[in-house]
């Protein structure tokens, strides 16, 4: 359903002048501390894989990454997107803040961008160190890869729109994975599930109605997104039931494939003087 302006609204005479105002970047990020990409590149030359998790199609999986280590989300077998959640492994109330990440960086993230945590902590949880889809940019439809604008497919919205009950939405998969990782019940785990980084997902807003859309992901087996853990992380990712999200989700219709999670340890001597981010220093008056 597209938005139709009310016919009872009168367009003011200075409408064009009002629309012509120049945009202002909300959060100028020149004062943000830049990640040490040279140091991270040097660390990447020393990586040793220490763990691996395979997430089955239409399921979720969890993983843990110590600060100073790296995690990769890898496409295997076929094009597949994943919905990612991150938590502070020692404090589940500190979790990934997709909205602030979007405001500080962009609607889609890539190498050099950071994944920020919720208030009141607001610090980098992870830095993106490599993105094999970094070549994609933005296409003619305005779509990019790895978005922080979508929420996650969930059974509640599916019930609202279709009337059906589907139990392998990304929200459901993340809830089960989080429960299994923490020992919480699914009812206790569910409130911890939050808006996601849509790994490999190709999305944008339509030019006319500005509606959120998805299209076939350009991901292929061997592609990966790599993060450096700035704090100890607990993570969960769902192999979305939409597969490459070229047609539908919240059903068993799409072709779906596994995702692989790889954990790497660098030469830890390179981190002896590394500066890990502290929680935000704001103090209430």
Keywords:
6 helices, 13 strands, 7-stranded antiparallel sheet, alpha+beta, 285 residues, globular
Quote the distance from N terminus to C terminus: 46 Å
Overall tally of domains: 1
Largest sheet: 7 strands, antiparallel
Counting H and I runs of at least 4 residues, what is the number of helices?
A: 6
What Rg is obtained from the alpha carbons, in whole angstroms? 20 Å
Portion in helices: 10-25%
Return residue spans where pLDDT drops below 50 for at least 5 consecutive residues: none
Strand content: 25-35%
Q: Care to count the β-strands?
A: 13
Write the layout of secondary structure elements.
Blueprint: H1 15-19, H2 37-44, E1 48-55, E2 60-65, E3 70-75, E4 82-88, E5 91-95, H3 98-104, E6 114-116, E7 124-131, E8 144-147, H4 155-162, H5 170-182, H6 186-189, E9 197-205, E10 212-215, E11 224-229, E12 233-239, E13 259-265
Molecular structure report:
The chain has helices spanning 15-19, 37-44, 98-104, 155-162, 170-182, 186-189, and strands spanning 48-55, 60-65, 70-75, 82-88, 91-95, 114-116, 124-131, 144-147, 197-205, 212-215, 224-229, 233-239, 259-265. With 285 residues, it is of the alpha+beta class. The protein has one domain (50-268). A hairpin with a 2-residue loop joins β4 and β5. The longest helix has 13 residues, at 170-182. The N and C termini lie far apart (46 Å).
What is the compact description of this entry?
The protein is an alpha+beta fold and 285 residues long. It has one domain. It contains six helices and 13 strands.
């Amino acid at each position: 359903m597209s938005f139709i302006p009310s016919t009872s609204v009168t367009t003011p005479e200075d409408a064009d002048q009002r629309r012509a105002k120049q945009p202002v970047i909300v959060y100028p990020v020149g004062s943000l501390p830049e990640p040490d990409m040279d140091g991270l590149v040097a660390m990447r030359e020393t990586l040793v894989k220490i763990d691996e998790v395979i997430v089955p199609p239409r399921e979720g999986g969890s993983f843990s990454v110590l600060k100073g280590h790296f995690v990769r989300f890898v496409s295997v077998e076929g094009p597949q997107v994943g919905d990612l959640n991150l938590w502070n492994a020692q404090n589940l109330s500190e979790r990934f803040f997709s909205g602030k990440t979007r405001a500080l960086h962009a609607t889609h993230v890539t190498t050099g961008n950071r994944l920020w945590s919720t208030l009141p902590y607001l610090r980098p949880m992870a830095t993106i160190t490599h993105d094999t889809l970094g070549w994609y940019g933005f296409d003619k439809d305005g779509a990019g890869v790895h978005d922080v604008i979508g929420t996650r497919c969930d059974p509640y919205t599916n019930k609202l729109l279709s009337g059906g009950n589907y139990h392998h939405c990304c929200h459901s998969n993340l809830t089960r994975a989080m429960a299994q990782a923490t020992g919480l019940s699914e009812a206790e785990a569910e409130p911890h599930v939050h808006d996601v980084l849509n790994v490999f997902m190709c999305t944008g807003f339509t030019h006319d109605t500005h509606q959120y859309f998805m299209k076939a992901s350009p991901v292929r087996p061997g592609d990966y997104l790599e993060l450096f853990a700035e704090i100890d992380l607990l993570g969960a990712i769902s192999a979305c039931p939409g597969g490459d999200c070229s047609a539908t989700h919240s059903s068993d219709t799409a072709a779906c494939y596994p995702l692989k999670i790889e954990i790497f340890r660098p030469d830890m001597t390179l981190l002896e003087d590394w500066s890990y981010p502290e929680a935000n220093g704001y103090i209430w008056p």
